[in-house]
Design goal:
This protein is an alpha/beta fold. It folds into 3 domains: about 120 residues, Rossmann fold, CATH 3.40.50; about 150 residues, 2-Layer Sandwich (Beta-Lactamase), CATH 3.30.450.40; about 100 residues. Helix content is about 65%, strand content about 15%. It has 10 helices and 10 strands. Strands 2-1-3-4-5 form a 5-stranded parallel beta sheet, sandwiched between helices. Strands 7-6-10-9-8 form a 5-stranded antiparallel beta sheet, with helices on both faces. The longest helix has about 80 residues. The relative contact order is 0.06. Pfam families: Response_reg. It comes from Methylomonas methanica (strain DSM 25384 / MC09). InterPro entries: Bact_response_regulator, CheY-like_superfamily, Sig_transdc_resp-reg_receiver. Keywords: Phosphoprotein. One of its GO terms (biological process) is phosphorelay signal transduction system.
């Protein structure tokens, strides 16, 4: 944005309404100008407004006609937020088709108005960056269109889509393919947890988001005049400005866009499956780590217990040999007692050997599971 206050025009034939809106905007670094008619507004465009709060219902030239005049005269950079007491679909579509950026009901609360202005400022800050990206995309599109046919573009899109790992990447890819078909429009993507909105040359305005919400309630494919709406799982696509005089071209575009939209739905579904597989693999890996830790602990305890038991048995043997002196046992009795002790020691060692064999088997199973997890991750 240039280093000057954000310039806002308030255009309304109702002086009280202008005063209320102007009062809401006081106290901020805004440059505010009030106009009672569309003619006054158009005559003052040399002031280079950033935002116009434009009443729709005005005597003489309406707000919709004013906006169309602004766009036809090349004032595409200035943002227009329509103000109206009506918020039905026809009003919203009229605001959109005349070139509006957003919509706000009359007598809206101060915090709502200020938030709309903040959104307009954020949109202007993002526009320069997005225009640079668009310039690069258009160059890429020109190269692609010269080397690939329409079907080739669709196939290239489908291949490229499987390299996308999130909704943002998929959405930008859809915008790129639309540019390659020389189409303008809006896109809404969702995966059940989040929603992302896209438009051809900038970020979606709040008005455009509202229009996409309405469009999502329409049928699978719906065309009215030069507007085409497509609804597939995980995607709503609104294309505007179709050449209605070329029915053959529109038919091909409908087919291509349907393939693209269906491909997007498949990719978003597969991304969700991949995420679930990744979560499952991570959970299994954590379980294997816990199992390895447990087996390591068991082995350490077995080694410690074995050592302690051998020590106790040896101490017990020495104590028995010392006791033989006082018990006055015969050689045969001493041999018999020594045999009992040796037999006990052998049985204990057999048990430890069996435990060690089981631990080795568990380790073998864990190693195989780890190899399977590594292969799955690759």
């Amino acid at each position: 944005m240039p280093n000057r206050p954000f310039c806002i025009f308030i255009v309304d034939d109702d002086s009280l309404q202008r005063m209320i809106v102007s009062d809401h905007l006081q106290g901020y670094d805004y440059q505010i100008h009030e106009f009672a008619s569309s003619a006054e507004c158009l005559a003052a465009m040399d002031l280079q407004p950033n935002l116009i709060l434009l009443d729709i219902e005005m005597p003489g030239q309406s707000g919709l006609e004013t906006c169309r005049a602004l766009r036809s005269e090349g004032y595409d950079a200035v943002q227009v937020i329509f103000v109206s007491a009506h918020d039905d679909l026809d009003t919203l579509m009229g605001a959109f088709e005349s070139g509006g950026n957003d919509f706000i009901p009359k007598n809206a609360a101060k915090d709502v108005l200020l938030r709309k202005v903040e959104i307009a400022i954020e949109a202007e800050e993002q526009k320069l960056m997005l225009q640079r990206q668009l310039s690069y995309a258009q160059k890429t599109a020109f190269t692609a269109m010269s080397s690939l046919g329409e079907t080739g573009l669709v196939l290239h899109f489908l291949r490229s889509s499987f390299q996308c790992m999130d909704l943002e990447a998929v959405g930008r890819l859809v915008i790129d393919i639309m540019a390659q078909f020389d189409l303008q429009g809006l896109v809404k993507l969702n995966n059940g947890d989040e929603e992302h909105y896209f438009r051809s040359d900038s970020t979606c305005t709040e008005l455009e988001k509202s229009i996409l919400e309405y469009a999502a309630k329409l049928g699978r494919i719906s065309q009215t005049g030069d507007r085409l709406v497509m609804n597939y799982p995980h995607i709503t696509l609104l294309v505007t400005g179709l050449n209605v005089e070329d029915s053959e071209l529109i038919g091909r575009l409908r087919d291509h866009l349907a393939t693209i939209a269906e491909g997007v739905g498949v990719r978003i579904t597969s991304m969700a499956i991949e995420q679930e597989r990744l979560k499952d693999a991570n959970a299994r890996m954590e379980a294997v780590k816990e199992l390895v830790g447990l087996i390591t602990e068991i082995e350490a305890r077995q080694t410690q217990n074995h050592s302690q038991l051998e020590k106790l048995i040896e101490e017990h043997r020495l104590q028995m040999e010392e006791a033989f002196v006082f018990l006055a046992l015969t050689d045969k009795q001493e041999l018999q007692l020594n045999y009992i002790v040796d037999n006990l020691v052998n049985q204990v060692e057999v048990l430890f050997s069996s435990d060690n064999s089981l631990a080795l088997k568990l380790n073998s199973i864990v190693e195989k599971q780890q190899k399977l997890l590594r292969v799955g991750a690759e």
